Amino acid sequence: MFKKSYRAFALAVALTMVVALLPTNFAFASTADVTLVSTVRQGEPITAYLLESSQISTLDPQLATDSVSIDYIENLFLGLTNTDALVPGQINPELATEWSVSEDGLVWTFTLRNDVPWVQWDPVNDEAKVLRMVTAGDVEYGIKRACDPRVLAEYGYVVSGVVAGCADTLAMDAETFTDADRDLVQVTALDDTTLQVTLTFAASYFLSETPMWVYRPVPREIIEEYGDNWTEPGNLTTNGPYMMDEWIRGVRHVLVRNPHIPADLVGPGNVERLVFTVVEDAGTAFALYQDNQIEGVGVPTAELQSILADPAYADQLHQISEPTVFYFGFAFDKSPTDNVHVRRAMSASIDRNAFIEEIRAGLGIPMIHFTPPGMFGAPPINEVGVGYDPEYARAEMEAAGYPNCQGLPNMEFVTYTGAGTWAEFLAAALERELGCDPNLFTIEQQEFSVLLETVSAQNEAADRPHVWTLGWGPDYPDANNWVNDVLHCESAHNDFKRPCSEVDDLILQAMAEPDPDARIELYYRIEELFFGPEGLYPIAPIFMRLRYSLLKPWFSFPIETDGLFGGNHFDYYTIDQEAQLAARGG
């Protein structure tokens, strides 16, 4: 399942410059029960004008699943730890200043700082009010909330995979579940600054999960007071570097700096206000960029070659590789894709280099196994996997009982909207390399959410396609997030309906292996069992995405490294305001 709808780039626009309010400097008291209100002054804050291609779905950390929502949550809520904006995959302290793990690897103890306030921004009166300090109890509440079946946290499966008791509570009946049942989840605030988390097994990758949004603390009293409306502007109480000033669904989102956050928890950027406007059309977005109304834009495919050839864009153009791997998925409960030889043959028929050139305008890196570079445990990119091999493909199709594709039954290919050419490329490859009649293949495009419903393992085989397109982007930088969370036979994302086999035992072994070198070796073997000559091929990996973005000369942030895991760090955004205003006519 492609659980995050990855954007080409987080962008925003404002058609006019506006005068806004900027909080003055403020120092809060050491007591946790004091209520303080910052004053504000008139002025033009340093503002980044950007675009979104879609609206925010939710600002609730335990409910977020899409990249737009996760970006905002990253900047509104601090976590136990955080991923480094400059060094992909590096885990840094955030609320937690230090941590330790028991000798058996089961009990993690985090020491939290005591100087981070919960802040409620009043957008009507432009006041930032400190309610109290964040405690270990808030983190405990957030994690247990992800394990509450009444909350319907889609990413609860990540927590339940490692935190003791979470799987048990998620399996309980939501109608009879009570707050007291949450205590079955073995997460405990020993005091205000000490959190203890007990795991079901010695998951060596647990720390790499802790920056995820689903583990972030939330203020219980605010949720209980406002219910589903707790994330609305005015109610929303956060602890991150920014606060939500405006949220007009489908139109505009505005963030302002949190004046009460400790200085050492804020990145080096200088942007005090961010104005995001929702613009879905890529052509419109590019026109706004050309008119200096926004700071950055993803490069439309139709404009790519002209921009690459134009020296005026040379210092504005950035190429970014994203660890998002796209693939064809195969149904194990339908003939002929229930036949491993057919799956191998189909995968080996795909010339991935040609696919990237013809379908992706050169924007991609061929992938012949699943875990991409940059993840712990990822094998070297060209060492594991068969890839494009027509001779092997023909031998496998013959072994399947369909020599020269004779007798192959009709097959249904379903893609998400805009990826119909992918299925056409596959059909043409099967015709060229294997001699298949192209009339055997029916191709249908579906809106993304509809596609997810269509391929769901809950459906009968007759209602599911043989082949479909999806992609997977990382939640945390570990091979477990790929081979276990997607491909394991008991994964919630096993829409392939692949039965369990020896490779699943190896995946479980790799999850608990404490020796990093041994884990790397295990993941190498796992990828070989999936994508080697004798592989199972639940999917045919195709490519890892590359993209181009344009940034104005006065706007900078670590675009090549930031936001690969979780959300972008807006507190790394820097604006040369004098140059920005001059380009817009002052």
Description:
The chain is α+β, with helices and mostly antiparallel strands and 586 residues long. The protein has two domains: 20-283 and 552-583, Periplasmic binding protein-like II (D-Maltodextrin-Binding Protein, domain 2), CATH 3.40.190.10; 323-545, Roll (Dipeptide-binding Protein, domain 3), CATH 3.10.105.10. The protein is built from 17 helices and 25 strands. A hairpin with a 5-residue loop joins strand 7 (96-101) and strand 8 (107-112). Helix 15 runs antiparallel to helix 16. The radius of gyration is 25 Å and the shape is globular. Residues 1-42 have low confidence and may be disordered.
How confident is the prediction overall: mean pLDDT? 91
Total helix count?
A: 17
By CATH, the superfamily of the largest domain comes out as Periplasmic binding protein-like II
Strand content: 15-25%
Distance between the termini: 47 Å
Per CATH, the class of the largest domain reads Alpha Beta
Overall number of strands: 25
Features:
7-stranded mixed sheet, single chain, disordered N terminus, globular, D-Maltodextrin-Binding Protein, domain 2, Dipeptide-binding Protein, domain 3
Structure, briefly:
By secondary structure, this protein is an alpha+beta fold. It has 2 domains: 296 residues, D-Maltodextrin-Binding Protein, domain 2, CATH 3.40.190.10; 223 residues, Dipeptide-binding Protein, Domain 3 (Dipeptide-binding Protein, domain 3, Roll). It is built from 17 helices and 25 strands.
